[in-house]
Specification:
Layout lengths: L6 H12 L5 H8 L3 H13 L19 E8 L5 H12 L4 E6 L6 E7 L2 H14 L4 E6 L13
Antiparallel strand pairs: 1-3, 1-4, 2-3
């Protein structure tokens, strides 16, 4: 059964997704509650799977990952064995920040973050040596206009 959340839960979630490092006191102050009920709600949201994890968002470019590629993959292989091998190949590569299976002409899209084009080629060569694909198109992002993890609660 899905966890039901109310307006107070939404307020707490909004604060946490903006800054998960906020203290309980600060979250409680911002949502108009006290610390214990806020803590109990956060615990309930974690246990219910609404809050999956807490992380730090890093500046990729400041860390030398200046190239972001969107990789469009078409495959003629759709068997379970191929899909498992493909999924493992993606999970084994930290360069892959996102991977989605699509409806339409393109089967998969990947968001790949690397240092430069040469590093992308290393990634590409490794991927195609492990899994067979019909067609790969790589699109280099020239400028990131918006990137967020915030859900519109």
């Amino acid at each position: 059964m899905a966890l039901r959340i109310d307006e107070m839960d939404r307020k707490i979630l909004n604060e946490l997704q903006r800054d998960a490092a906020l203290s309980l006191d600060e979250i409680a102050r911002r949502v108009g509650s006290s610390k214990t009920p806020v803590w109990n709600r956060i615990r309930k949201l974690r246990e219910g799977g609404i809050i999956k994890n807490q992380t730090a968002v890093l500046d990729a470019e400041a860390l030398g990952f200046e190239a972001c590629f969107f990789v469009l993959i078409r495959t003629s292989e759709h068997e379970a064995e191929w899909q498992a091998k493909f999924l493992k190949a993606l999970q084994d590569r930290p360069e892959v920040q996102e991977a989605h299976r699509l409806a339409g002409d393109i089967d998969y899209i990947l968001k790949v973050r690397v240092e430069n084009a040469r590093a992308y080629d290393v990634f590409y060569q490794a991927l195609i040596s492990e899994v067979r694909v019909y067609n790969v198109t790589a699109l280099l992002s020239m400028e990131e206009l918006k990137s967020t993890t915030l859900l519109p609660l």
